[in-house]
Amino acid sequence: MRQIVYIIIGVALLMAGQSCGRPGGRDRGGKPRITVTIEPLRYFTEAIAGDCFAVESMVPKGSSPEMYDPSPRQLVALSRSKAYFRVGYVDFEQVWMERLAENAPDMQVFDLSEGVPLIRATEPHGHHGSGVEPHIWMSAENALAISANIAAALCRLDAVHAPFYRHRLDSLSQVIRGTDAAIRGMLAGASRSFMIYHPALSYFARDYGLRQYALEESGKEPSPSYLKDLADVCRREDIRVVFVQPEFDVRNARVVAEEAKARLVQVNPLAYDWRQEMLSVARALQEAGIRNEEKE
Ligand SMILES: [Zn+2]
To answer: Ligand 1: distance of its center to the CA of 199 in Å?
Structure first.
């Protein structure tokens, strides 16, 4: 009997290194909650928080953070959140953040864009543009800063487990650096310019010395004359990839891609699995580069 007790204590001590060891830790309802704006932030937050917090995204899969309104159920759930992690400048936050904070006065709000090298947008983005290019998470360099901000926030919310969060931040940072190195390898000799429906890869382009062209015309559906200009851009810039996102219409992008004999590739910068998404963008550019070299 005594041996069994020792074993149980031993296992509990071991687990304390990997988890919060809270009673009923498996029960989502029993854990403190954190709400984040979009799925990629849930990826980073869960990677660091382990099972210490239950993390939920405000903008559900398939919706755009540029035109989403929260449901009444979400507003109620939010009042039970201990903290809110915002991306920084996405439209949803510009419109809703004040009301969300009023709705949940005890909730602490953390801005994950702090310390991130921002791109000032040349034209307003979305309907409530702030002058800042909002898609900061599609960059390995930015992801390191975002993750450090998340870890700092978790340490403030739950100081007892600070060593645990710091340790997990180290592991996540290694994953991010590894992703960055893999992308740099893939992009050697790849296509340097690309087109995308909604310009969500500005930071990705900056980091890897690529040129991004948006199909949208100032955040709106492109006119026929604009589409014709874009086809010219494709030929001039030797664009071989046109990216489309699930939240946006694919029809116009297909017209341009066919005109320019470019590949239409679906990407999803709002997907949960940040690493996978970063790699698939790079892979599409890599394949386009290789395909063309074979042709020449
Ligand atoms: Zn956007």
So the answer is: 6
